[in-house]
Amino acid sequence: MAVPRHHMAKGKQLRRRSHLALKPKKLVKCSHCNREILPHIVCKNCGYYKGREVINVLAKELKKKEKKAGK
């Protein structure tokens, strides 16, 4: 069974844990629709990334509706 070799002072323990706090997410504006998005990720609203269309959002929605209507 593991046993701690030395007593750790509360101050040392808290200083070690000071970096474990959650940091707020940094958001940037989409270059196409100006919505707030996470950096380096395709915009879910318009499907653009770095100024060019990567995902055709309208076609994706139509496909979803057709699939739902088929059920």
TrEMBL record:
Entry's Gene Ontology BP terms: translation
UniProt GO MF annotations: structural constituent of ribosome
Ribosomal protein is among the record's keywords: yes
Keyword tags: Ribonucleoprotein, Ribosomal protein
Signal sequence annotation: none
One Gene Ontology cellular component: large ribosomal subunit
UniProt entry tagged with the keyword Hydrolase: no
Pfam families attached to this UniProt entry: Ribosomal_L32p
HAMAP family: Ribosomal_bL32
Family: Belongs to the bacterial ribosomal protein bL32 family.
Protein name from the UniProt record: Large ribosomal subunit protein bL32
Organism: Candidatus Yanofskybacteria bacterium RIFCSPLOWO2_01_FULL_42_49
Top-level taxonomy: Bacteria, Candidatus Yanofskyibacteriota
Gene assigned in the entry: rpmF
